[in-house]
Amino acid sequence: MSDSLSRKIKSVALVALLTISSLSLAACTSGPKTPPSEALVTAAVSTLHTLKNRTDLERFNAQLKNAAGVAIFPSVYKAGFFIGAEGGNGIMLAKDANGNWGYPAFYTLASGSWGLQFGGQKSGMVFIIRSLGAVKALVKHQGKISADANVTTGHVGTGLEGSITTNLGADIIAYSDSKGLFGGISLGGSAMVRRNDFNAEYYGGQVGAEAILIQQAHQNPQADTLRQKLAE
Question: Residue ranges per domain, the chain?
């Protein structure tokens, strides 16, 4: 492939990613009085409830109980015609030294790809982060989940092609409830990018992801329902 064609593909994929991310944001801002960050936390409760009650995802609750962290993306949109893109806004939480769930930091999940593909999909996704090392790697890095954070990933999904399970020894296991023409979503080329604007809105000032997730230095009682749901 020529460098010129490669650059064009990347540019189109970037536009698609921005469009998908805006769709995800719009889905969490339908209420005129609810701040987008609070709406996202509320949507995460619903996504978590759905997956915790899925009888065909037997390992989910056990893995969640033993997790060091979790990332929840209530609405991940995937679309493509030859060039594919996926993305959505979400939150990440980590346990403290006593095993209690902390408070959320905000992220956007984004990924692009090209090849023979078409269709569209909307998924609620939950990433089970299985070690403190993986939590710290995701907090430190903003690049591709596998390459830059140096973690391995697996996927358990539902869709038109049935359930798919890969790499059960992975640092991160992604669970999804996919709706649409695409099958599973690949995490290998995905990036979790910090939403510092949402963090500032939610906590009332400039707050970093490390202070929220590692130092456990910030709280917002609006997330207590979600924290209780995680602990069930």
Answer: 3-231
